[in-house]
Amino acid sequence: MTTPDPAAGGPVPARAVFRLAAPALPVLAAEPLYVLVDTAVVGRLGAVPLAGLAVAGVLFAQVTTQLTFLSYGTTARAARLHGAGRRSDAVAEGVQASWLALAVGVVVLVVGQLVAGPITRVLGDGGPVADAAASWLRVALFGAPLVLVTLAGNGWMRGVQDTVRPMRYVLAGNGLSALLCPFLVHGWGSWQGWGLEGSAVANVIAQSVVAGLFIHALLRERAAAPPDRPVRLRPVPALIRGQLGLGRDLVLRSLAFQACFLSATAVAARFGASSVAAHQIVLQLWVFQSLVLDAVAIAAQALVGAALGAGGADRARAVARQVARYGLVLGVGFAVLFAAVYVVLPRVFTSDPTVLAVVPVAWWFFVAMQPVAGVVFALDGVLLGAGDAAFLRTSTLLAAVTGFLPLIWASLAFDWGLAGIWTGLSAFMLIRLIAVTLRTRSGRWAIPGAVRT
């Protein structure tokens, strides 16, 4: 299939978007899918282990949420270089991002082991739920460097418009995790299994396999590079500093997400194990479907970055209009789907009647926000592909401070329960929708060139 000229004006063929978006879907869903599998398996152990997983899962998710610049920032830089015809330089961004991922991952592992107990006691109930969360988290943290290497690998591969190999790598890891998790949690025959900790062990094993495959891909790119444009494997401080510059804004943006979702889990925990377990089920479905919607945005990142790298600002703006429409259609489709499976889907994750009784409070907020989320995540992808990280930082912080956080803490003060928490999430998404729509329509983000200045 012929790749469209990234500099040409007008809309790109729908098949070009689908070619990148379809393989990106399982990659985006990887980490939430790990936790969804864990939720379904651990839910059979009872409310306390499931609540412990809720607290620990949100904490571990901050590793990827807080450090998304290793993926999205690398895509933005690599895509522009790829569009300018500099593939070796685009792959070099992946090498440097991988070094950065390993360094940061080791720090996360060491610091996380030291603070796992105190943090889970603050977010949990200070008793059995906190103990369960700390136990799971201490094992799962050994996967932190591996998850970050995977983020970096996804970033540079998206930048060179290769989303097929990452899909294969992730499917291998997810399949292995799904096979190991029930066995390690519940045991087999006379062996009783490791309980909650078994799910964390399964994740670490799977993450090791996926990270190894991404490193192997870098080595293959190095071997295939032309002699006059080699891909060097040693750390290059100048490139790492460039990635950190873009990463600064993305980290601050991620902090807004971190503050919101940690606050939501902490407040839900104050309403009891049943409330936090119900929140865990709906929240993990929210994270999962959000990243599924973002599959179209991954295509937008690669296409927008390549177009701007080749000097095609008109093409980049056309892609933005297209993915907004695609995101809206997908969001409406998800709203219909989740409304239809309302009775049966929560029972996949738990049979506890006290948890199932609370789930509907959050569920219908979740359904109503699907079309909004479809547009927001799609346009986030456009602006990330253009390297417009400063705007995304500011708008996300504004949405957190004026929308999510006030309602979250008011729900605790006035005993609004999960209804208050999910009202806050709805306000957060609506403010972001207004911001990214206005920014995209302005066109000020479409700055051409192999490197954004």
Automatic annotation (TrEMBL):
<feature type="transmembrane region" description="Helical">
    <location>
        <begin position="50"/>
        <end position="73"/>
    </location>
</feature>
<feature type="transmembrane region" description="Helical">
    <location>
        <begin position="136"/>
        <end position="157"/>
    </location>
</feature>
<comment type="similarity">
    <text>Belongs to the multi antimicrobial extrusion (MATE) (TC 2.A.66.1) family.</text>
</comment>
<keyword id="KW-1133">Transmembrane helix</keyword>
<keyword id="KW-1003">Cell membrane</keyword>
<feature type="transmembrane region" description="Helical">
    <location>
        <begin position="169"/>
        <end position="188"/>
    </location>
</feature>
<dbReference type="InterPro" id="IPR044644">
    <property type="entry name" value="DinF-like"/>
</dbReference>
<feature type="transmembrane region" description="Helical">
    <location>
        <begin position="94"/>
        <end position="116"/>
    </location>
</feature>
<feature type="transmembrane region" description="Helical">
    <location>
        <begin position="285"/>
        <end position="311"/>
    </location>
</feature>
<dbReference type="InterPro" id="IPR002528">
    <property type="entry name" value="MATE_fam"/>
</dbReference>
<keyword id="KW-0472">Membrane</keyword>
<feature type="transmembrane region" description="Helical">
    <location>
        <begin position="200"/>
        <end position="219"/>
    </location>
</feature>
<keyword id="KW-0813">Transport</keyword>
<keyword id="KW-0812">Transmembrane</keyword>
<dbReference type="Pfam" id="PF01554">
    <property type="entry name" value="MatE"/>
</dbReference>
<feature type="transmembrane region" description="Helical">
    <location>
        <begin position="250"/>
        <end position="273"/>
    </location>
</feature>
<dbReference type="GO" id="GO:0005886">
    <property type="term" value="C:plasma membrane"/>
</dbReference>
<feature type="transmembrane region" description="Helical">
    <location>
        <begin position="323"/>
        <end position="345"/>
    </location>
</feature>
<dbReference type="GO" id="GO:0015297">
    <property type="term" value="F:antiporter activity"/>
</dbReference>
<feature type="transmembrane region" description="Helical">
    <location>
        <begin position="416"/>
        <end position="435"/>
    </location>
</feature>
<feature type="transmembrane region" description="Helical">
    <location>
        <begin position="391"/>
        <end position="410"/>
    </location>
</feature>
<feature type="transmembrane region" description="Helical">
    <location>
        <begin position="357"/>
        <end position="379"/>
    </location>
</feature>
<protein>
    <submittedName>
        <fullName>MATE family efflux transporter</fullName>
    </submittedName>
</protein>
<dbReference type="InterPro" id="IPR048279">
    <property type="entry name" value="MdtK-like"/>
</dbReference>
<dbReference type="GO" id="GO:0042910">
    <property type="term" value="F:xenobiotic transmembrane transporter activity"/>
</dbReference>
